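subagent[fold] <- orchestrator: predict structure for attached chain, return tokens only, no commentary.
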Amino acid sequence: MEIHSEMAGAWPRHVAIIMDGNGRWASQRHLPRLEGHRQGAKAVRRTVEFCRKSGIQYLTLYAFSTENWQRPKKEVTGLMKLLSQFIDSELDEIHANGIRFMTIGDMSRLPPNLIAKIERAKARTRENVNMSLIVALSYGGRQEIVNAALKLATKLQGGELKVEQVDEHVFAKLLDTSDIPDPDLLIRTGGEVRVSNFLLWQLAYTELYFTPILWPDFDEKALSQALDEYGSRQRRFGMIPDQLDSPDKTSRNTGDMPCCQRVSSPL
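subagent[fold] -> orchestrator:
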């Protein structure tokens, strides 16, 4: 699909996606839920390829939440197998295209063989710089913030940090996404209008886009429409429009890294 050159100045640097609707897609077709997840994996492939070609630098996909562990054991086991198969089938191409494979979340809860496979994939692609693909696995935004708070308490108790040094920049460095800029655009498919415990800290100034399209049906056209919508918005970050129009103020609708991850910190 052709990338619209007139949108280049308003292109997001980081896109995050809540991939919702696999189960409903399958139910509508009287198919097992896992078939919906299999078709969803094809949508992942399309999305990664489109983002790579369009110059998006970071793509974060919400693949499995901490709450998803409550699903039927058969479905959870099937999802783990699908993830393993996805790595087997796609890693060579991911690496060949210069994409870095990363994860956020509590990896310790995954099957040991899958953990080992993920770690090998991350090690193999660590030096790639064309794009970063971040997969959120066993991830929950509240738990991430709690974990960061516990790390901060440890540093304060150990004297590694002083109370007066603590600010949002320091705290952001303790999150799973410490080396990743905050998302510019969050897309949620499937028609639900909520963020479902995803990147709660990082979404503070992210543009939100909701579509009724179920994830297996989400294609290049649908993604292009979301990007066009993003480009039509003015991101003010607490300022007023006149400030953004000032000649000495660079527009913030170009995917700039958020201030909490640009400023150096004691960490």
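orchestrator: received. Logging for downstream: The chain is about 40% helix and 15% strand. The chain has a mean pLDDT of 89.
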